[in-house]
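Q: Give me a protein?
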Amino acid sequence: MLHGWMDVSASFQFVVDALRRSWRVLAPDWRGYGLTDRAQADCYWFPDYLADLDQLLDALLPDEPVALVGHSMGATWLRSTRASGRSACASW
């Protein structure tokens, strides 16, 4: 579950709670959001977020199909990532 701009993964908690019996649910905070560390750079680049998502999925779910759900900016990123080639995607 990919949160939107100026949001945090904790906003998905009610959905995570509802889905956790049937699904393995991951809801990470994007770099610079929520409880993540701030980067030394003064800005973040779109490709960096995409690479973060690809690396996270490769580390936690290598070669497994995934269902990605995104809201706002998270929906934009999931449609742009290479992970969408191995996933069913939904956005709102």
The CA atoms of residues 31 and 92 lie 21 Å apart. The mean pLDDT is 82. The first strand starts at residue 66 and ends at 70.
